[in-house]
Amino acid sequence: FLYKLMKINFKSKYNLAKYISSTFGYIFKNNNYKCLLYHSIGFDYDNDKIKIYNLPKNIFKEQMLILKNLKYEVSNNINDNLSNKNRITITFDDGLLSIYENALEILEELNIPFIIFVSPELIRSNQNIYMNEKQIKELSLSNLCTIGSHGFAHKDFTSYNLDELVNLEKKSKYYLEDLIGKKVKYLSYPFGKYNIKIDKCMKELNYDYTFTSEFGSNKSGSNILKRIDIWNYDNKKQFIMKLKGQWDWLSYYK
Fold first, then answer.
1. Structure confidence at residue 60 (pLDDT)
2. Among 231, 244, 250, which residue's Cα sits nearest to residue 26?
3. What's the pLDDT at 231?
4. Are strands 224-229 and 186-188 parallel, antiparallel or unpaired?
5. Distance from the CA of 228 to the CA of which of 40, 72, 155, 235 falls in 20 to 30 A?
């Protein structure tokens, strides 16, 4: 959705999507399992080309409190989540330092579990916008945090030769598992890009579940999980509508 209409600015696209979600979105309302997708909390970063992925810290806390007040159960136990109603998983892509510095204290205060998807190349890049090995290892010790892979080099998986990709992702998985001393069970596709052959190969590397950026909720039996993108344009009303599935129509936009 974000890239199909690049000739229209994001605010115009968002207002159109908001109108559709408010008027027709009720058709898609559901209580199915949902994964929320966040990136940065409180820091701007260069990869956010259309400036929608940096959520102010106070808004992030407001959203976490909404989950609590609406009695959603936030859990990283994907097997159980898929067969239960009103389950939510919080995910962060890219392993940005702002999660460690801004989101972590909120999640710990409210006792909310979360998954962070990280890339070895970014961890070792010495760029101060990403978490480093020490911070990743520290987070992995928390009962609230699950570390997942976001690809070895945070590049589009479909741009690789399949054999090259498999070798790189073996390297990524071994690196992360050695770093945190735990099995890495989840993989988030960089830029949401994958195909069925790629996903089959990733499952053969013993990833239990893979996550895309395709918009929507998840039904029992899924092992490629859709997510609900959270943007800094979302006010309280729109956030709740996303939780209820009223933005799920975006999954049909190709």
1. 98
2. 244
3. 96
4. unpaired
5. 155
Amino acid at 127: Q
The model's pTM is 0.94
Amino acid at residue number 179: L
Position 8 scores a pLDDT of 61
Enumerate residues 6+ apart whose C-beta is below 8 A from 153. 119, 120, 121, 168
**To the nearest 10°, the Cα dihedral for 113, 92, 233, 82?**
-60
CA gap 221, 201 in Å, rounded: 19
Q: What is the DSSP letter of 14?
A: H
- Predicted pLDDT at 2: 44
Question: How high is the pLDDT of residue 83?
Answer: 85
Q: Which residues of 12-27 are buried (b: 16+ CB within 10 A; e: fewer)?
A: ebbeebbeebeeebee
Specify the amino acid at residue 77. N
Contact 208, 199 (CB under 8 A): no
Provide the β-strand partners of residue 36: 90, 228
State the amino acid at position 93 in one-letter form: D
- Which backbone phi and psi does 38 adopt, to 5 degrees? -120, 165
Does 46 score more than 80 pLDDT?
no
Sequence-distant contacts of 121-129: CB under 8 A, at least 24 apart: 121/152, 121/153, 121/154, 122/94, 122/95, 122/150, 122/154, 123/95, 128/97, 129/43, 129/45, 129/46, 129/96, 129/97, 129/98
Number of H-type helices and E-type strands within the chain: 10, 10
